[in-house]
């Protein structure tokens, strides 16, 4: 059975948890680095999803497909 992809909101909450944990400090360097890497991955995924949603909204408003480089 394929693993279900987490929702945008679930991944955002996971990112917030990672940030909070790193801000609290007291972590071993290796653990902090692992959390940082996971956070960077999540930020990239979330930004890509937001960009896709923004592009879709532009398409819906204009009725025309919008090339990604023209999207804000």
Describe this structure in words.
The structure is a single chain. With 72 residues, the chain is mainly alpha-helical. The protein has a domain at 29-63. Helix content is 71%, strand content 0%. The chain contains two helices and no strands. Helix 1 (8-24) packs antiparallel against helix 2. The chain is elongated and about 50 Å long. The mean pLDDT is 88.
Rg of Cα set = 17 Å
Poorly predicted tracts of residues: none
Helical residues, percent: over 70%
N- to C-terminal separation?
38 Å
Beta-strand content estimate: under 5%
Order of helices and strands: HH
Compute the number of helices. Answer: 2
Main sheet summary: none
Shape: elongated
Number of strands: 0
Which structural class best describes the helix and strand composition?
Answer: mainly alpha
Overall average residue pLDDT: 88
């Amino acid at each position: 059975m394929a693993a279900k992809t987490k929702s945008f909101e679930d991944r955002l909450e996971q990112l917030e948890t990672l940030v909070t944990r790193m801000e609290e400090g007291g972590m071993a360097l290796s653990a902090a680095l692992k959390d940082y890497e996971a956070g960077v991955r999540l930020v990239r995924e979330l930004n890509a999803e937001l960009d896709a949603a923004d592009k879709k909204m532009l398409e819906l408003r204009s009725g025309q497909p919008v090339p990604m480089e023209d999207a804000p």
